[in-house]
Amino acid sequence: MLNRYIIELFENSEPLNERTIAEIIEAEEKKLDSGIILQGSALDGEMDDFRVCRVIATSNPSVKVGDKLIYLRFKGSAVGKHLIVLDKDDILAKVVE
């Protein structure tokens, strides 16, 4: 409940100095060709150095709310377990779907 409140608080904010506030996306489960289903925690090894997040507020003209971004694992400032504040230089790429 508190996490939802914090997310809503940041959704209604305006980051300064081309920063981006994003909600961290946890790894999803993946089905292997053999039929084995791996939970998200088992996939962490595949993306040890990178993380994916969804933008909820930004002052960076290169991204918009709803974009998925890739950033380095130890970049940005964590806000609780589910949010991160990224400087424009912390963002490696925008996921194109």
Report on the architecture of this protein.
The structure is a single chain. The chain has one helix spanning 2-11; strands at residues 20-25, 30-31, 37-38, 50-58, 68-72, 77-79, 83-86, 91-95. With 97 residues, it is mainly β. It has a six-stranded antiparallel sheet. The protein starts with a helix and ends with a strand. The mean pLDDT is 79.
Defining traits:
8 strands, six-stranded antiparallel β-sheet, 97 residues, mainly beta, 10% helix, two-stranded antiparallel sheet
Uncertain segments are none
Query: In sequence order, what are the helices and strands, one letter per element?
Result: HEEEEEEEE
Tell me the number of strands: 8
Distance between the termini: 30 Å
Mean pLDDT, all residues: 79
Helix content class? 10-25%
Q: Provide the β-strand percentage band.
A: 35-45%
Treating each run of at least 4 consecutive H or I residues as one helix, how many helices? 1
Name the strands of the widest sheet in spatial order: 6-7-1-4-5-8
Rg over alpha carbons: 14 Å
| Largest sheet descriptor | 6 strands, antiparallel
What is the general shape?
globular
Structural class by sheet pairing and helices: mainly beta
